[in-house]
Amino acid sequence: MDISKEVLAVIDEVLSLGGRALAFDRETPLLGAVPELDSMAVVGVINLLEERFGFVIEDDEIDGSSFATVGTLVEFVEGKLG
To answer: Among 15, 22, 40, 55, who pairs with 36 as Cys (CB 3.0-4.6 Å)?
Structure first.
């Protein structure tokens, strides 16, 4: 499983970006840079990540820095899977 591609697919789906997220790379900024990523969308991304990868994210495990870039979000997911 390519975790980066799966995370990008989740972002694209939740934010209804119509494939735009698939062009993002690990350095692409997210929070504050992608207008569609508001607080409700963050909750949607977390929920779909939990569903897609089969883990549970506790409230104290994640903060804004996890959503700083695509890379930080991928690293967070990798940490949950590791």
So the answer is: 15
